Amino acid sequence: MGEIEQSPSRGETNLVEMPAPTAWPIILAFGVMLSFASLVTNPGIGIAGASLVICGCIGWFREVLPQEHHELISRVGQVPGAVSARTSVARLEVSDRHRAYLPVESYPVISGLKGGAAGGVAMILPALLYGYISHHSVWYAVNLLGGAGVGHWRNPTTADIAAFHWNGLLIASVIHIAASLLIGLLYGALLPIWPNRPIILGGIVAPLIWTGVLHSSLVIINPSFNARINWIWFAVSQFFFGIVAGIVVTHTGRIRTHQSLPFTLRMGLQTRELMRPGDGENKN
User: For a tag site, which of 28, 157, 180, 228 has the least CB within 10 Å?
Assistant: First the structure.
């Protein structure tokens, strides 16, 4: 850390010029540590730390400005040069799946919408069957789903829920269609991640999770509404939805995610640098 060393002469070929060692970075780091330690100790530690930070910065700057300090190191032996028998550069052939983000393929958006619509239709049958068996009315399950849109239903009786209501049917239809399509889109995005048995995820695992989350939530949000739902029949309806939606989605052809293409091509920008020779040109 003294004066700048002189550069080696022509005859001193066994000496190599290297950056001179310095302790100022360690002093600076120690000062920063003491400064933070003062937050839980006393201000004196902080003053000492700040002093070391200032000294460390000044000393480190003087080591590199206006010219870096160097020292001469003796070189032992000769550094062997790189020797190769190849006359040309070999280039690795990397496939499109090299370091790809999974899934490599996914289902199109339309497959999720079709699966959600088919699953929504399939789950209507067990829901209506439950209402007819338990309360002799196919409108019981419909009004349970759309009862939030019926303004005068504050404490409805079982007979009120089992009766037909236009507003309940309308609200239930909107909720059912929207939820079916959204869950269908979710199935289209998740099923490619489950490559071996996608129906297990769509028909069993997801309905069980969805039923458990709703059951746990409604106990706190609306206990009276939760008491009117037969959760076994609800789970059966969800199984019908999951199996049918999963079958429809998985029977649709997959498409590549194009993740290996450059960003400009995925954005639809065609640049001459990224196009292969002859692409887009007329061949005679």
Answer: 157
